[in-house]
Amino acid sequence: MGTRRELHGLIFSGALLLLLLAQPLLVFSATPPFACDPANPSTRNYGFCQTTLPIDKRAADLISRLTLEEKIQQLGHIAPAIPRLGLPNYKWWSEALHGVSNWGRGIRFNGTITSATSFPQVIVSAASFNPDLWYRIGQAIGVEARAIYNVGQAEGLTFWSPNVNIFRDPRWGRGQETPGEDPVTASKYAVAFVRGLQGDSPTGERKSEQLMTSACCKHYTAYDLDNWKTHSRYTYNAVVTAQDMEDTYQPPFKSCVQEGRVTCVMCSYNRVNGVPTCADFNLLTLQARNSWGLDGYIASDCGAVDLISGAIHYAKSPEEAVADVLKSGMDLDCSDFVQKHAGSAVQQGILSQGDIDRALFNILSLRIRLGHFNGNPLQLPAGNIPPSQVCSKEHHDLALEAAKAGIVLLKNAANLLPLARSKVTSLGVIGPSANNGYLLIGNYNGPPCTGSTPLGELRNYVNDTRSVQGCNKVACDAATINEVILLARSVDQVVLFMGLDQDHEREGLDRIDLVLPGLQRSVITKAAKYAKRPVILVLLTGGPVDITFAKDDPRIGAILWAGYPGEAGALAIAQVLFGEHNPGGKLPVTWYPQEFTSVPMTDMRMRADPATGYPGRSYRFYTGKPVYEFGYGISFTSYSYEFEAEEAVTSIYLNSSLTPRTTANSHILSYDIASLGSDTCGNLKFSATVGVKNQGSMAGKHPVLLFSRWSSSEHGRPIKQLVGFQSVHLEAGESTKVVFPLSPCEHLSRATDDGTRVLDKGSHYLVVGQKEHEIRIIS
User: Fold this and answer.
1) Quick one: pLDDT band at residue 661, thresholds 50, 70, 90?
2) Quick one: 329 and 432 in the same domain?
3) Which end of the chain, N or C, is less surrounded by CB atoms within 10 Å?
4) Is there a domain that residue 139 lies in?
């Protein structure tokens, strides 16, 4: 989402920028603002204050009491107070991507609470492939948000997180905010995190009529380019096929709404096939609200409505732009553009009060569900959450658990790791990221509760730890090679901390290439050349980098990817290096070679096109040779898999009366999922059981990834696709059985050219590791 507007280098609407800069410093009261005070005789009898009435009746009552101008002013992200009705102001824009953040307008750390737990960046947590962990992170953030609200340091409980866009291109600066390139992973992340943040149970039951907070899945949809070469997200038109929409871009949003029951969807800056997403009736109303059943509101990205009549010239005037978005189904504008122009749109007859009332109903109903019109929030559910719940030991321990779970071991030649403290008498730490804890946090962050650096943590393990930075900064446009060589020669073991930072990848900044910046490679290779034994390379990046040179260099014995691991990340890295944690993370995104940069970032196609040399995108369609593939990650131990033959399904029978369709220019026979119907699809469900054994001598937590594939990848079929994953903890030598519930209509189906989902007749294969199990669809 284009929420926080960094002033360094981001294109932004001048009017909105002035609006943000003009906001006064806020002084918060000790209690949160609220409406419907029982002690106020002038408001106690209002219908919208009556908690015994249904929410829709309460919202309708409040709308009926507002003037047109009051209605219009509630449609912006800073909704002003209405004193005559006892309504305080409300700020819709807050962020909670991987911890409660001060990006946005609703949260301030200027009182009793001055920080919040900073969990690993989302791409790191995603590498755990552990929905239970994702849920608990969301839950902890929701609790901290309520605690901040309860002490009066928040003017809103609507958090515009998570970012569930597909990490389509490795150069995307915001890929770090996402769960990666796979639609199934992104979907499961969305569901788990949203349930936790909103206060629901892990299985989706709503514990209370009152939400803990409101989450928002963004950026809807096909948004994955910020500022690449001459292309800006503000004017970009994403040309997307129906096939790619169905099986790549839309699934995370569909799951977020239908399973996660998210209460907000945010439309994006970009156009999709020529239409701005915030003005697309098909996307907003027909799909998100009517088809998927969104029960909540639709917000614009910040300044997106302005662009519709401005930079992209889709509408002829500001009034037309406002009319377009409200009639299409958008409810809330993250700016003051609608507040300024809706009145004149009504006067011109292109916008009705009914359109305004529809939007108001959605946003006011959500505020009622948050408890804002139920009296003093400190006397309501969640009102007793104290400040001590923020930065608690429990949450810090969870941040450490998440950081450890997300670290991916990419190389470990000759079992260089784990290091033995008794055998490492001196340690050399090199790199611009080694002694800067802030570089571990990632973007969309709040002030962390605590922090440390990799260098500081490693000194707790080896007293004689020496360090040189090697590079003047992460960009490494100057290097102290002689210092690096002298240090490498003088110590038992060298650990290098290299990678990227927010000056290389972030909102508003996409990368041009995939290699390490500046002279980092030279520093690494020189250290490796002169070190006494193979060196260890720790990569701190959000997106993938081409480190083929390090992968192939025998003098670089081990490689760890730690991403941006959050406030506990430095300790997590140290614990992995010294064997106090056995890494089990798996890459949630393909690591492409540098040559992939010849592919235009603007090409939205997922599938390869051999006729033109287009290689495709993601593990599902990429036909090139990756540096590291999606799902790759090794451990200090080894695991083996077997499909349980006694419980295995080998054939699935369809009713012979069903008529298959034929794929054009193909022998493939398929059945439309829609024509099969929910009853038939339900009857086809089965389970696959995988035996997993820890074959090594060290306990570990291990994600088991189950894929499916077809007998060929012709006619747009994926090479393979992830259908499920579970995380298991196994002691050395221990084995277990993992059961995957599967639905052929969901997990074995594919999207055709026109976006129709079909189930192919014939052979399908379940794949885990190097093991396969064939299942035949028969009629």
Assistant:
1) confident
2) no
3) C
4) no
